[in-house]
Amino acid sequence: MNLAADKLAGSVESRFGDAVKRVPSTVEQLTYELTATKLQDVCHALRDEEPFRFEQLMDVCGVDYLGYGENEWRTRSATVTGFSRGVDRHSPQADEHAQRRFAVVYHLLSICHNQRLRLRVFCADEPPMLDSVTAIWASANWFEREAFDLYGILFSGHPDLRRILTDYGFIGNPFRKDFPLSGNVEVRYDPEKQRVIYEPVSIEPRVLVPRVIREDPRYQEAFKEASKNA
Question: pLDDT at residue 217 above 90?
Answer without folding.
Answer: no
